[in-house]
């Protein structure tokens, strides 16, 4: 199994879950945003999707399927640097797909995002919801989904695109978790504030039309995401074509609800300051994952928000962090 981007947050957890279940894993990563310490579950291939010749090393040994997590993934950065996002996320994916085709590899699980939907038009977002991304990051993911549909038609490539809502939590006992530089995600920032590291938490907007005025998101444990990838692989054996599934728990939590849950988990007070809204943030994003449950048999195991935050807290307070 070739895991592209396996040193990043979701990719490392997928590599770990695959190794736990007995898969032989190779991780392709250029460590541009990934972590060397996450390269513990298989052979490391130091390659770059934007340098197609470097991909040959990944296919030197037989590859039965690919999981593709390589991407730039910050919404606000994508607004400021759209060329970088289209280049990395779309051209990089095309290079990978062409290498897969050249080497006769016909199965792919692609890391997509709720950002393909844009502003939600219903309370829970299912796969039929209109796709109208409002930032280059979401547009880049949607373009790759489209390329995969065309590749299924033209070349018979089998693929499953998994659209995560808000990935969260950690496999703290395996020494991996969420860590980005700069860190823009809510839960890591809340936990840093709980530890008194840096400034108080900035709450981006308290005047949204939500339960308490702050944005609502659907947080899903990263190990549950990893499990969905492994299920998608098996499911594809009997399913030609390009398929997409939404992955979330179906329950939304506001920013302030996350802060309260984190205060409870950590036993610490968390200082917050209300700041202006962040550009490109929809008020509410909550998934319907009925299709993933039905077709993949996916049943998330870490559904309580306190458990998700606790796993992240244990990672943040561990020596590996
Ligand atoms: N937030 C704060 N303060 C912070 C960080 C975040 O108030 O310090 C708020 C944000 O404004 C947002 C919520 O917390 O309302 C969640 O923000 P995150 O940055 O943690 O996550 P996003 O919902 O913005 O983004 C996530 C993924 C993206 C993906 C997007 C799909 O990180 O990759 O969901 O919409 F594109």
Number of domains: 2
Q: Level of helix content? A: 25-40%
Q: Treating each run of at least 4 consecutive H or I residues as one helix, how many helices?
A: 9
Question: Strand order of the main beta sheet, please?
Answer: 3-2-1-4-5-6-11
Q: Element order, helices and strands?
A: EHEEEHHEHEEHEEEHEEHEEHH
CATH fold field value of the largest domain: Rossmann fold
Number of strands: 14
Bound molecules: uridine-5'-diphosphate-4-deoxy-4-fluoro-alpha-D-galactose
**Per the principal axes of the C-alpha atoms, what is the gross shape?**
globular
Separation of termini?
27 Å
Biggest sheet, in brief?
7 strands, parallel
Which CATH architecture of the largest domain?
3-Layer(aba) Sandwich
Supply the helix-strand structural class.
Answer: alpha/beta
The CATH superfamily of the largest domain bears the name NAD(P)-binding Rossmann-like Domain
- Provide the β-strand percentage band: 15-25%
Average pLDDT metric: 96
pLDDT below 50 for ≥5 consecutive residues: which ranges? none
Q: In CATH, what is the class of the largest domain? A: Alpha Beta
Describe the protein.
With 321 residues, this protein is an alpha/beta fold. It folds into 2 domains: 2-168 and 219-247, Rossmann fold, CATH 3.40.50.720; 172-217 and 250-316, UDP-galactose 4-epimerase, domain 1 (Alpha-Beta Complex). The protein is 36% helix and 16% strand. The chain is built from 9 helices and 14 strands. The chain has helices at residues 9-20, 75-80, 82-102, 136-155, 186-194, 222-236, 255-266, 290-296, 305-316; strands at 2-4, 26-28, 43-45, 66-68, 107-113, 158-164, 166-168, 201-204, 216-217, 219-221, 242-247, 253-254, 272-275, 284-285. The strands form 4 sheets. The protein has a 7-stranded parallel β-sheet with strand order 3-2-1-4-5-6-11, with helices on both faces. The longest helix has 21 residues, at 82-102.
